[in-house]
Amino acid sequence: LRVEVGIVGAGPAGLALANVLTRRGIDCLVVERASRERVEERQRAGLLEDRTVRWLRSQGLADRLLAESTLHHWCDFRCLGHTVRVDYGAYSDGRQHHVYPQQNLVRDLIAGLERAGTPPLFSHNVRAVTNITGRRPRLECEGMEIECDYVVGCDGFRGISRAALPATGHRAHNRRYPYDWLTVLAEVDRPVEGVRYAVHRAGFAGMMPRGPRLSRFYLQCPPGDAVAAWPASRIVAELRERLADGDPAGLPAIGATPEVRMLRMHSSVLTPLAHGRLLLAGDAGHVLTPSGAKGMNLAIADAAALAEALVARLREGDEGPLAAYSATRLADVRRVLGFSEWLLGLLHLPEEASAAPEAELTSRLAAIRRLAEPGPHAYRFAHRYVGSGVR
Ligand code: RFL
Questions:
Q1: Is any ligand 1 atom within 6 A of the Cβ of residue 159?
Q2: What sequence ranges are listed for the domain FAD-binding (predicted)?
Q3: What's the 157 CA to ligand 1 centre distance in angstroms?
């Protein structure tokens, strides 16, 4: 088999890229190791940034998203028994998040490829990417080889594309945070209206809207903690304790918990994001923690940049945008990582504060209040959180 662009992985990055390339007449193929059912069921992110939605719309990929998503322009912080509502839409010229589950976007993008007559090749594990410095890099799958002009690795943090890079000349900037997050998908008796972040002496807790009957929750726990230490009764009790912080009004009743996972809190950014004719996009090149809800948005921003660069290279013979891809995207990734880490810093108390957390919590409350009052803190937070593209 021979295509112009071979894409490994049918997540948001690979699927968005393939949709745009196909529409621009570039022959490309997405190869995905999991089955279509599995890919369409994976529940992960849910907050789409303003710039992500604007781009998807500009490419004609947002019809169902615009019809079915809900808009979101505020978040609540709970600290020392106070609720501080940060109306970031008011400080970002009305820009808002769209709440739209990742699996719905993934389904839309798969349907788009199907309509174009180029559906992903599901249930095909790419075992290796070879000849990346030659003119014709190859995807090697079981019983099949795909020859390409360019290969784009969109196969996530544990994919094989990273492994195809030479050991020298690339660096992973890794960071391990001194806590982990238990992530819980739970049934709720009424829709969660908005994001709530609780800064609490017992640790951070978060609540994210996902749909009418489902919500995602996060609980800070000690690094290395095991899921087995968190039976449902403990999860519910701890969520209530931290998120309510004395006032359970506004909290839904939490029912069954169909998914409970331990998220090892780390980030990793690979530099550069390209070698020869292999380019990395999305989590394959950079993973962030869920703080600030940035991962899926960065994956789509990579796809947007790569689509333009590959069209310029393959249709106009212009190598410039492709040569600049890694540096341009890494500058954005570092900015976003900076914001995500700043938010982690706000939400977690340092270890040293555990003996006397009151003073630390008091200063956190003051910092949170600054985000809710007109001024540079609120303006900066709002633009970076909603992903307006304004720096
Ligand atoms: P994906 O979505 O991980 O897709 C990679 C695909 O590659 C396939 N693959 C292979 N295919 C063929 N051959 C191989 N050898 C292969 N190896 C792997 C995999 O099966 C998979 O289908 O990567 P992509 O496209 O870069 O997208 C990244 C996003 O999925 C990720 O950043 C977000 O989900 C992160 N994230 C969040 N991001 C947000 O923007 N907002 C959020 O609120 C948010 N919440 C989350 C999240 C991630 C989470 N988890 C589980 C990691 C919440 C959670 C719990």
A1: yes
A2: 3-339
A3: 8
